[in-house]
């Protein structure tokens, strides 16, 4: 689309207990905001049905510039991957109103 502007979409799927710490981290690392939703699924750590709190997962989405994306993914990998069931990925997207998401 010609009226979109390049941006990074960082997606973190993690244990629900990490929502607070992750929110603080991504904002401190330069994100302008984030969106969180409750999710469930199955993967290498088994079924995560969300039936009870310890079994709940979240999906955090952050739209940001490339530098912020790199800072977030490096931090998440260093601080959380060893001890928590989580997945993180980055996609190139086009956004409207880029001033809301990038420096």
**What is the annotated CATH architecture?**
2-Layer Sandwich
Unreliable sequence segments:
none
Helix-strand pattern:
EHEEEEHE
Give the rounded overall mean pLDDT. Answer: 89
Strand content: 35-45%
The chain-level structural class is: alpha+beta
Rg, Å, rounded: 14 Å
Q: What oligomeric arrangement do these chains adopt?
A: single chain
Shape: globular
For the record, the count of structural domains works out to: 1
Please give the order of strands in the largest beta sheet.
Answer: 2-5-1-6
Q: Portion of residues in helices? A: 10-25%
What is the straight-line distance between the termini?
22 Å
CATH third-level topology = Alpha-Beta Plaits
How many helices?
A: 2
**Name of the level-1 CATH class:** Alpha Beta
Could you describe the largest sheet, including whether it forms a barrel? 4 strands, antiparallel
Number of strands: 6
